[in-house]
Amino acid sequence: MAVRKLPSPNLESVRRQFSYDPETGALIRKRLGRLMAGRMVLVDRIEYRKSRICCLIETGEWPDEVDHEDTNELNDKWSNLRKCSHQQNLCNRRIAKSNKLGVKGVVRCGKKFRAKIASNGVIKRKVFDTIGEAADAYMVWSQALHGEYGRV
């Protein structure tokens, strides 16, 4: 699925309309004195992710994408936000709700367990006797391939 590219909002216009507290992550619409709740915010009739607006106010640069380090999209504290590529953002995802084992990157394969990870054309997979061995292998591979964006 392609990422929808939006035009960058005007920095001065954004700073006129909003104030951002990097300690709390609060984005406030100045005219109404209202805290902006949720993940999206309207700027000049275009809907943007609130985290990207916070990043624009703080750095003065429009980010391609913003990653929430703790994966909580409502936590817009500056210490939790970081610029990233789309690939890096995908690496920092939680375990899927449909995951029956509760271990990211591991599936049951008969009586054994298969760990698998893919990144930038590199695919690693191996079958293990225990779920613990498979989980440990995934964790090592994730750190090697994804670095600080790897989540297990």
Number of domains: 2
Largest sheet: 3 strands, antiparallel
In the CATH hierarchy, the third-tier topology of the largest domain is known as Homing Intron 3 (I-Ppo) Encoded Endonuclease, Chain A
What is the terminal-to-terminal distance?
23 Å
Describe this structure in words.
It is elongated and about 60 Å long. A hairpin with a 2-residue loop joins strand 8 and strand 9. It is 26% helix and 30% strand. With 152 residues, it is of the alpha+beta class. The strands form 4 sheets. A 3-stranded antiparallel sheet has the order 1-2-3. It has a 3-stranded antiparallel sheet with strand order 8-9-10, with helices on one face.
Index terms:
4 helices, alpha+beta, three-stranded antiparallel beta sheet, 152 residues, Homing Intron 3 (I-Ppo) Encoded Endonuclease, Chain A
Write the layout of secondary structure elements.
Elements: H1 11-17, E1 18-21, E2 26-29, E3 34-35, E4 40-43, E5 46-49, H2 50-59, E6 65-68, E7 81-84, H3 86-91, E8 106-109, E9 112-119, E10 122-128, H4 131-146
In short:
The protein is α+β, with helices and mostly antiparallel strands and 152 residues long. It has helices at residues 11-17, 50-59, 86-91, 131-146, and strands at residues 18-21, 26-29, 34-35, 40-43, 46-49, 65-68, 81-84, 106-109, 112-119, 122-128.
